[in-house]
Task: inverse folding
């Protein structure tokens, strides 16, 4: 049975056979290595990372006594949950994300990553709950993740469409929404997406072709 270490776009954890295309952590261990149940805490620190699945041949016992290993459908999902690219295993992406964020937020100086983590932490959660944002759909960049109209599904903006999310990839194409929508992706990350950061999508997104 898979552990409940898959991450939804709203940041919550669940169990699913789909492994996903990215890996990450939240700065340490917040699961119980004895029970492997869904944690009551949502993080160890503010450092929420999105990593590659394989790096320098390292091997780990997942959900042992080390940090809490997490898995994402794709980077779009990880960004929506509030994670950012890892500076160790994804250095080029992490620097590109930071540069885009600086441009998007109009920061006078380039911050260190702990400061970016502080900004993201304020954007992504209200205590243990996901902080969502009501924003005009027409202003949102590709890669933004929204709560669907039914309040249960998640949709990601991609070109002229909205793609319905699932743990194993995107399963349906809908019209890009209009009006005011509920956004999961933190505003700081939206600013990075608006100013040139290009997240990595699940490879299955290519099956939808051009809208």
Result:
């Amino acid at each position: 049975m898979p552990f409940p270490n898959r991450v939804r776009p709203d940041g919550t954890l669940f169990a699913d056979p789909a492994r996903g295309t990215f890996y990450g952590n939240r700065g340490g261990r917040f699961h119980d290595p004895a029970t492997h149940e869904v944690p009551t805490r949502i993080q160890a620190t503010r450092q929420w990372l999105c990593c590659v699945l394989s790096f320098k041949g390292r091997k780990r016992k997942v959900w042992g006594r080390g940090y809490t290993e997490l898995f994402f459908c794709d980077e779009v999902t990880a960004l929506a949950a509030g994670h950012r690219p890892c500076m160790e295993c994804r250095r080029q992406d992490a620097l590109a994300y930071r540069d885009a964020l600086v441009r998007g937020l109009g920061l006078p100086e380039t911050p260190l990553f702990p400061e970016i983590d502080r900004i993201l932490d304020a954007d992504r959660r209200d205590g243990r709950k996901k902080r969502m944002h009501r924003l005009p759909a027409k202003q949102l960049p590709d890669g933004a993740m929204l709560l669907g109209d039914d309040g249960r599904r998640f949709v990601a903006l991609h070109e002229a469409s909205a793609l319905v999310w699932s743990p194993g990839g995107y399963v349906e194409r809908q019209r890009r929404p209009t009006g005011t929508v509920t956004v999961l992706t933190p505003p700081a990350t939206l600013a990075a997406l608006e100013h040139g950061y290009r997240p990595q999508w699940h490879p299955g997104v290519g099956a939808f072709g051009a809208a």
About this structure: The chain has a mean pLDDT of 95. DSSP finds four helices and 14 strands in the chain.
